[in-house]
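Dear H.,

Thanks for agreeing to be a second pair of eyes. The structure we're designing against is below in token form, covering all 328 positions.
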């Protein structure tokens, strides 16, 4: 019999989770493994009731792979014995709110959840989606005694998927032809989407898209600003595409990465590419499919690209200073 997987998801009453939970339960993410879902959200009656409604709908799908779904307001209860924690829940950035204020507002959520994961879960992997996700992952990891920092990751897969789509559209090819796209740094407007190491139909991107000005300017800023563009167009932040990226992230860590390929995820730096050790920074990552992963080494970067990486790493360092008092 295949081994069950227990997944806790925070922010379960929110809009990303409404697109995410069904794809965790359906077999799409974990194959034929029975899935136990723990839905965690705030201890507010209306919020808990909304979670119960989502749980009812999950049951109503009749998925062969959904073993159980439970609703929680206590993180210690929700994180007990889990295999994956998907930390989606956070307060959204309000109008006129500075990034620093958002960091200080959401940081404490991740100190408490880090402590709860430490108490409950010996064999857990964590994906932080709630923003600012890199720094929130750093806070959770540093408050989670006994769980290695390597188990904490943050989501830049949506940025990677956005970059793939932009390159494919510009080149007039299917998305599947675009490979080797890396998002470096922070999931923020300073992120660096790397086209220098990406390929289209097996050729370097710069051989297929010869407009270097477009690559260095319009392409990068479109990916960096895509979240805002979605809010402007839809009146709400990305939800289905964010859920899709979270599924991609989990699947990529669960599977063995094909030789010579990689995916983007924010993971704890070991000093690779000059990124200070300990920062949760987006890198090219390769998974061994057995719970281990490595930062892919040896990608070449022009001086122009190195400056882009330095800028986004500087922002991560500033964020680490802002939350210094929350780091355990
Ligand atoms: P919603 O506002 O729809 O839902 C958030 C949910 O989190 C709410 O149900 C709220 O009650 C819950 N919540 C708040 N504090 C909590 C806590 N301490 N414990 C448990 N639940 C808690 O937001 P949604 O659109 O679902 O977005 C969730 C987060 O994802 C936001 O922080 C957002 O900024 C972030 N995003 C991250 C992305 C990424 O690529 N890393 C992209 C999409 C999205 O912007």
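And this is the sequence the design step returned. I haven't edited it by hand at all.
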């Amino acid at each position: 019999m295949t081994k069950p997987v227990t997944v806790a998801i925070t922010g379960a009453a929110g809009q990303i989770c409404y697109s995410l939970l069904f794809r965790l339960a359906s077999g799409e993410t974990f194959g034929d493994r029975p899935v136990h879902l723990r839905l965690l959200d705030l201890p507010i009656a209306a919020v808990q009731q909304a979670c119960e409604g989502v749980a009812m709908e999950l049951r109503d799908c009749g998925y062969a792979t959904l073993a159980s779904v439970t609703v929680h307001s206590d993180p210690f209860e929700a994180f007990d014995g889990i295999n994956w924690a998907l930390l989606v829940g956070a307060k959204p950035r309000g109008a006129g709110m500075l990034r620093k204020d958002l960091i200080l507002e959401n940081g404490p959520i991740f100190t408490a959840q880090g402590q709860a994961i430490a108490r409950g879960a010996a064999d857990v992997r964590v994906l932080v989606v709630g923003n600012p996700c890199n720094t929130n992952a750093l806070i959770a990891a540093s408050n989670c005694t006994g769980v290695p920092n390597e188990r904490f990751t943050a989501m830049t897969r949506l940025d990677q998927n956005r970059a793939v789509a932009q390159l494919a559209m510009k080149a007039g090819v299917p998305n599947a032809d675009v490979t080797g796209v890396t998002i470096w740094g922070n999931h923020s407007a300073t992120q660096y989407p790397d086209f220098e190491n990406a390929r289209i139909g097996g050729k370097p991107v710069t051989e297929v898209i010869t407009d270097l000005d477009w690559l260095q300017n319009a392409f990068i800023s479109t990916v960096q600003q895509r979240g805002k563009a979605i809010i402007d167009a839809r009146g709400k932040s990305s939800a289905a595409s964010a859920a899709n990226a979270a599924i991609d992230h989990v699947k990529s860590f669960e599977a063995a990465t094909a030789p010579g390929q990689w995916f983007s995820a924010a993971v704890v730096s070991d000093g690779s590419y000059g990124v200070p050790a300990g920062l949760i920074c987006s890198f090219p990552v390769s998974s061994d499919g057995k719970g281990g992963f490595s930062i892919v080494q040896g990608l070449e970067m022009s001086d122009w690209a190195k400056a882009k990486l330095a800028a986004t790493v500087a922002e991560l360092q500033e964020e680490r200073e802002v939350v210094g008092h929350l780091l355990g």
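Two observations from my side: Residues 10-11, 13-16, 40-42, 47, 88-92, 109, 129-131, 133, 155, 158, 187, 227, 237-239, 242 surround NAX (CB under 6 Å). The CA atoms of residues 228 and 234 lie 10 Å apart.

Warmly,
E.
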